[in-house]
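Field reference: sequence -> structure
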Amino acid sequence: RPLSNDFDSFNASRLTQDADMLVTQQLEPVSDIWRGPLADMGDANKIGAGGREGLSLMREGRILYSAPLSEQTSEISMLNADATERKQLTANRSNDLSPLASPDGRYVVFTSDRSGNFEIWRMDMDGSNPLRLTNSAGANMPSISPDGKWVIYLSSTDGKIRRVPLEGGESVELVGGAVGVSAVSPDGKLVAYFAWVKNVWGIAVSSFEDGSLVRSFDLSSQSLNNRALKWTPDGKAIVYAAMSDGVGNIWMQPLDGGPSKRVTNFKADGIFHFDISTDGKDLVCARGGWKHDIVLIKNLLR
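Structure field:
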């Protein structure tokens, strides 16, 4: 029989010898949405809770995000630019994650397990007319090409980056050896993605046309967040999140091979997801971590 009915996770449970008391570690995820200028996140404001399961900016400034709404499910919602109104877009007994708005504002692309496996789906901006774009043994970590024609995603079974038409159709393999999300350059010619570089996690850049490798970056000195990856608007650098000394920050890697540079100066918490506005000035990120508590449950046999 269940002994808890909340969203939290528990581990390292131990029973007393008479099985009447139990002590366990309670893990509670904490994630808040912050927004501010990329150049100085010291002026950022906390505008709401959520975003641990996905976060993205729309062109007009609204925010799409995913957050748990029950013990079993996470749903997608939309938040106004000024955080004055939240609209829930999905409501079902599944996990709907990683929402992205198409460049023309017509669709939301997301990952869902509503068909059994996690697959890539598309729906209208109001949450209606859901359409499954992939039919595989597992697909996740979607991104959308700047021209709005393609959804790029990671195949869960073989680590390959594939692309499928946003309007629906057959998917094709683009590159292999990926270990995270991908992002197409603003001019549509390159795709950046997390990959194995010199036997460690790094970032690779390949041709979006034929998948041939252009260059790679060894970023092994930092703990990479492989769920978020962006390009600067001019296409000259790749933006990513990494953990150092227990704190997550945003970093920028020039495409010409120059040294990576830390962009934000957060002093606490990790970064679950982030996105950058199309002009490169505005940053939105889901920051937080895990709260650890010890819980004692008595009278188990009563």
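Note: The two ends are 13 Å apart (CA to CA).
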